[in-house]
Amino acid sequence: MFAQVFGSCTFGLNGYVITVEVDIHRGAPDFDIVGLPAVSVKESKERVHAAIRNSGYALPVDKITVNLAPADLKKDGSGLDLPIAIGLLTSAGVIPQEAVDKFMFIGELSLQGEIRPVPGILSMVLSGKEAGIHTFFMSPDVAGEALLCDDVTVYAPKTLGELVEYLLGHESMTPAVRRETPPTTINDVDFAEVQGQIMAKRAMEIAAAGAHNVLMTGPPGSGKTMLARRITTILPPMTREEALEVTKIYSVAGLFKAEDIIRERPFRSPHHTISMAGLIGGGTIPRPGEVTLSHRGVLFLDELPEFPRAVLEVLRQPLEDREVHISRVNASFVYPSDFILITAMNPCPCGYLGDPQHACTCSDGEIRSYSRKISGPLLDRIDLYVSVMRPKYSELTAVVKGEPSVDIAKRVAEARAVQSERLATWHMQSNAQMGHKQLRETCQLDKEGSELLREVFEKLHLSARSYDRIIKVSRTIADLNGSVNIQPEHVAEALSYRNMIQRR
């Protein structure tokens, strides 16, 4: 007997509706799953068989064929256990076909028939809704995530037996209810805690206002990490579309455990032992890497020269294109990676080069080798170079606190609003997103500013990319100062953040 039910799986960041077709007919006992199943899907037949038996149901001892359509799409994950089980019971005549039409079933099955959660629920539900399916069955642990999608009905049975009894009409079941959690604006960290570091805090404000990349250089203990961890407190709040986009990424990565969408901008700080696949994404069916998990937020790389050079080099394309392209035999994937890169490093291996209080013990060769771990093309993609010096004792013991994050965030939000309005024609939100065309149309310099930039450009032998980035930073500084036009002082301040790492 033939039966058909709907399930889903993820491919990249998107969910796909999978039609599970089951046919049971007389023949030598066998169980085949076809339609490009991965190993995790092939193994489902053992879980499904045991779950059905331990739930009190029996399957005929015949030949079973399960087809997962579309057959040319690679299926991975354990979320097809539940639709396969329901399809088998429908094909065996336990459940009538009309009882499962227009429903989607998502979940892994334990050997006892318990329905377990799987990652990527939000993407799967969104794909089902686009296909015209509005009723879903899944584990209670992920029902809240599914309800982040509007206009859907979600049922959350705990076991396969409970679900079958409901489909047969023997038991009632109440749809899951969405829990509304009020957004919180309480931060564990605040810029008011940073004593001194006026120039560094100003650079963080410019970076947040224009979504610019930053490299901080200074001795150990000067506050580089402290500054980086507070930049998310001054970034504008995400729109609902951005929040859903970030939540979808974390759902597919299996990192979403909350009842509501992710409202705070991501802050990712991977260790310097991370691999290329961990940073950029990878695997047989690629999973999101740190650059994608940082989307709409901040990627912080502490101790930058300690990262393998090959790992750092893979950042060049995402920083420029704001998306990651990963190609595999089965398909090509495009993951978003629109993030602010904040990096920190010591000036030399011992950390005290240029420190008036400590003598540097490194040789010229060691310093040169240390600085050359970061390539010129990667440095060229950084907008602001900030020297962070150790604060004085009087600054650390000052009674008056620094400016709080909430005040800085107001200026940043106003600057972002100006940028969003100015760049609305190109659907951009920040100055860092501008290309050469947008720069020519929105960032004209006067004669004095152009002459200043020309002198520095020729003296430092800057690249065309560096030229554009200086103008972008100048435009952001002008926005923060409430200026319609870019003034020479804005260009001068932007140039002051362009002091390249010295290579000896």
Can you tell me about this structure?
Helix content is about 35%, strand content about 15%. It is of the alpha/beta class and about 500 residues long. A five-stranded parallel beta sheet has the order 11-14-17-10-18. A four-stranded mixed beta sheet has the order 1-2-4-3. The protein has a three-stranded parallel beta sheet with strand order 5-8-9. A hairpin with a 5-residue loop joins strand 6 (about 110) and strand 7. Helix 7 crosses helix 20. The longest helix is centred in the last third of the chain and has 18 residues, at about 405-420. The protein starts with a strand and ends in an 8-residue tail after the last helix. The model has no long low-confidence stretch (mean pLDDT about 90).
Structural class: alpha/beta
Largest sheet: 5 strands, parallel
Helix content: 25-40%
The helix count comes to 21
Strand composition percent: 15-25%
The neighbouring-strand order within the major sheet is 11-14-17-10-18
Please describe the structure with a list of short key phrases separated by commas or semicolons.
504 residues, five-stranded parallel sheet, four-stranded mixed sheet, alpha/beta, 21 helices
Q: Quick recap of the structure?
A:
This protein is α/β, with parallel strands linked by helices and 504 residues long. The chain contains 21 helices and 18 strands. It is elongated and about 85 Å long.
